[in-house]
């Protein structure tokens, strides 16, 4: 009973809009290779359909407790936006934390390779550093002008600095996850960061601060700053080569990203595409490249 | 490609690095690692366009490196790491 | 010679009064948000139990993460030294000491005089401290003190994948939904925690005999999991493991007062 109640409460502050979209200017019938990329992350899942390397349609949803089901749902949701039958897909690449559980995938490729490739597509060939902040982990990646990974690092799975850590705080403070960025700037002056790295200790620290009379916004600002510092320490290790692109769900959290970019001394790159679908885009692009190389599905 | 697999503890961030451009997939590291963190795969999941086998850190070990690699990182009189010593092409290095 | 040792841990404040090398009284209170009050209360409690007036105490040693709160301390003792001397007091054969408290885990290697010659600390991650079992007990909806006995009922090994408390919570909820028996989940929790502590011990090298201190050592399943993981015949746990560091601080304070 207690568990169910907790989940209800979480949903309230976690909820973000699921979406799907189709590019009206692309006709799938005239495409040579149609490839599918499915990124099953710990928090969200995306599917991207590409026609000869161009984005035709995509979907973005919350990952359920069951990865194969989440992959299926994301795929059904993207096909819903189109009039294309599923069997028209030439090649499917699965990526993300749940990639081994994408039943329809012809091949799985890590999110490291896919995010670098996807960032290259979304933000252009100037991208040399990609920072992927997902629900479960942070990855810092360096790539060349073709989006090929030259250097990457990832840390063991600790919630500090990840989307999951931010969700815990949104829940604790009762602030909707998509308002976190804005609310964290509603402070008179920037407070010092929460000193504990560990989310569990940071939580008790935050409770202490609230008792001391800090506003929720001030606590949030202190946490966003701590998260930015945690992410920065990882990127610093790899070295930042401009331009820098941020992908993954946290790219949408201005509270962390703006503070992080200020530390790095760069401006975040902009794109018309949603940074959260970068992994799925990369996966679909690899599918396309493999098809072109004659390494596609053996029919 | 430099593949850095790492962890953080009270004293900082640490990484085991595999230079996949030097790695020939011979598998010597797989045999010597006391914690069995390495595997050799035919298709590099981090570099889909690569041809030829490569050593990677096994998926289920990636999140446990803090505990798996810790015994090879004693607080004093540090011996060379078995994986680094075994790698003939010099593809493996570490940051501690 | 009468001395006192006060250990300000993350969760509880512990005081030990020692008279001529013997424990005369103990006091323990929850730290809460007022550390000064906790220090005062636990000290008074120990004095009362010992039947000793505060003016008769010749030397006070303070230790633990919050040791600055021990305002009346004659000596601030660092945690590694306190745990080393505490373990040596209970077991002079101790050569390795492990202290797992609510928020910290530490291991030290001792010489034959009870001095720490090497140590390792886990101080920034809840997965390697008592908090881990506490958080998992909440997820399992089981009282903390029942976690250990419950785990001992299981003979099944289930690996836990998550290394972080936050992710482990979801994993435990997943195991509950999959109808895994609570005893097996509890064992998995203890095993996971023990393997983390043991990797820390292995960094300094296992040097027999091994002594366990800290509140978590009250938990029989945890001690058993550590013993199994270290592949030892037995581990040494004093009767009141959570007073280990306070004892160490009292010993050091007495030595200082006697000019040793």
Please tag this protein with its features:
heterotrimer, A: 299 residues, alpha/beta, six-stranded mixed beta sheet, four-stranded mixed beta sheet, 9 helices, 10 strands, disordered N terminus, B: 96 residues, alpha+beta, Alpha-Beta Plaits, three-stranded antiparallel beta sheet, globular
Tell me the total number of β-strands of chain B: 5
Strand content of chain A: 15-25%
SSE order of chain A, as H and E?
Answer: HEEEEHEEHEEEHHHHEHH
Sketch the topology of chain B as an H/E string, one letter per element.
EEHEEHHHE
Oligomer: heterotrimer
The third-level CATH topology of the largest domain in chain A is Nucleotidyltransferase, domain 5
**CATH fold field value of chain B:** Alpha-Beta Plaits
Task: Kindly report the spatial arrangement of strands forming the biggest sheet of chain B.
Answer: 1-2-5
In DSSP terms (H or I, runs of 4 or more residues), the helix count of chain A works out at 9
Mean pLDDT of chain B: 88
CATH hierarchy: architecture of chain B = 2-Layer Sandwich
How are the SSEs ordered, and which strands pair?
The complex is a heterotrimer of chains A (299), B (96) and C (260).
Chain A: H1 2-14, E1 19-22, E2 34-40, E3 44-51, E4 54-62, H2 67-80, E5 91-95, E6 107-108, H3 111-123, E7 129-133, E8 138-143, E9 149-155, H4 163-173, H5 180-183, H6 199-211, H7 216-238, E10 244-247, H8 254-264, H9 278-292
Parallel strand pairs in A: 2-5, 5-6, 7-10
Antiparallel strand pairs in A: 1-4, 2-3, 3-4, 7-8, 8-9
Helix pairs in contact in A: 3-9, 4-7, 7-8
Chain B: E1 2-9, E2 12-19, H1 28-32, E3 38-41, E4 54-57, H2 59-62, H3 65-68, H4 82-86, E5 92-94
Antiparallel strand pairs in B: 1-2, 2-5, 3-4
Chain C: E1 2-8, E2 12-19, E3 22-30, H1 35-50, E4 59-63, E5 75-76, H2 79-90, E6 96-100, E7 105-110, E8 116-122, H3 130-140, H4 144-152, H5 165-177, H6 182-204, E9 210-213, H7 220-230, H8 244-257
Parallel strand pairs in C: 1-4, 4-5, 6-9
Antiparallel strand pairs in C: 1-2, 2-3, 6-7, 7-8
Helix pairs in contact in C: 2-8, 3-5, 3-6, 4-6, 6-7
Question: Can you summarize this structure?
Answer:
The complex is a heterotrimer of chains A (299), B (96) and C (260). Helices cover 39% and strands 19% of the residues of chain A. By secondary structure, chain A is α/β, with parallel strands linked by helices.
């Amino acid at each position: 009973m207690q568990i169910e109640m907790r989940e209800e409460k979480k949903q309230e502050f976690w909820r973000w809009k699921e979406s799907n979209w189709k590019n009206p200017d692309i006709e799938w019938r005239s495409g040579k290779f149609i490839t599918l990329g499915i990124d099953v992350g710990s928090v969200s899942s995306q599917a991207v359909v590409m026609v000869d390397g161009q984005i035709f349609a995509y979907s973005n949803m919350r990952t359920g407790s069951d990865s194969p089901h989440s992959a299926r749902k994301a795929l059904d949701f993207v096909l819903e936006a189109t009039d294309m039958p599923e069997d028209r897909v030439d090649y499917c690449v699965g990526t993300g934390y749940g990639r081994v559980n994408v039943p329809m995938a012809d091949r799985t490729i890590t999110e490291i390779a896919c995010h670098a490739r996807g960032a290259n597509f979304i933000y252009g060939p100037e991208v040399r550093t990609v920072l992927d902040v997902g629900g479960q982990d942070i990855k810092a990646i360096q790539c060349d002008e073709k989006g090929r990974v030259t250097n990457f690092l990832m840390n063991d799975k600790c919630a500090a600095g990840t989307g999951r850590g931010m969700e815990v705080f949104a829940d604790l403070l009762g602030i909707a996850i998509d308002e976190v960025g804005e609310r964290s700037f509603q402070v008179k002056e920037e407070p010092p960061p929460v000193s504990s790295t560990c989310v569990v200790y940071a939580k008790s620290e935050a409770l202490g601060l609230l008792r001391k009379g800090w506003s929720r916004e001030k606590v949030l600002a202190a946490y966003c700053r701590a998260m930015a510092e945690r992410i920065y320490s990882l990127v610093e290790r790899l070295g930042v080569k401009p331009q820098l692109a941020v992908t993954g769900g946290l790219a949408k959290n201005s509270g962390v990203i703006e503070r992080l970019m200020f530390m790095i001394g760069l401006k975040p790159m902009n794109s018309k595409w949603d940074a959260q679908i970068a992994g799925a885009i990369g996966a679909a692009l690899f599918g396309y490249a493999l098809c072109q190389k004659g390494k596609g599905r053996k029919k | 490609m430099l593949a850095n697999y790492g962890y953080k503890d009270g004293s900082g961030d640490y990484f085991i690095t595999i230079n996949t451009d030097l790695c020939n997939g011979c598998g010597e590291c797989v045999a010597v690692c006391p914690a069995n963190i390495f595997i050799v795969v035919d298709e590099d999941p981090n570099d889909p366009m690569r041809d030829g086998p490569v050593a990677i850190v096994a998926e289920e070990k990636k999140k446990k490196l803090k505990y798996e690699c810790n015994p090879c990182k004693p607080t004093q009189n540090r011996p060379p790491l078995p994986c680094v010593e075994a790698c003939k092409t010099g593809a493996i290095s570490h940051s501690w | 010679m009468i001395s006192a040792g006060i250990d300000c841990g993350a969760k509880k404040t512990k005081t030990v009064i020692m008279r001529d090398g013997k424990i005369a009284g103990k006091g323990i209170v929850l730290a809460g948000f007022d550390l000064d009050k906790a220090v005062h209360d636990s000290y008074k409690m120990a004095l009362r139990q010992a039947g000793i007036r505060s003016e008769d105490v010749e030397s006070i040693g303070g230790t633990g993460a919050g040791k600055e709160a021990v305002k009346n301390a004659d000596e601030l003792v660092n945690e590694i030294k306190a745990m080393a001397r505490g373990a040596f007091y209970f077991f002079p054969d101790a050569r390795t000491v492990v202290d797992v408290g609510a928020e910290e885990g530490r291991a030290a290697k001792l010489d034959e005089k009870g001095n720490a010659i090497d140590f390792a600390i886990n101080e920034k991650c809840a997965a390697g401290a008592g908090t881990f079992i506490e958080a998992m007990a909440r997820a399992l909806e089981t009282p903390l003190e029942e976690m250990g006995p419950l785990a001992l009922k299981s003979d099944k090994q289930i690996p836990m994948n998550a290394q972080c408390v936050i992710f482990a919570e979801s994993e435990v909820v997943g195991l509950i939904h999959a109808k895994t028996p609570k005893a097996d989940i509890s064992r998995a929790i203890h095993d996971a925690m023990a393997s983390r502590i043991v990797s820390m011990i292995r960094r300094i090298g296992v040097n027999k005999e091994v002594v366990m201190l800290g509140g978590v050592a009250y938990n029989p399943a945890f001690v058993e999991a550590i013993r199994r993981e270290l592949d030892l015949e037995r581990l040494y746990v004093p009767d009141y493991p959570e007073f280990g560091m306070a004892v160490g601080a009292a010993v050091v304070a007495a030595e200082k007062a006697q000019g040793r």
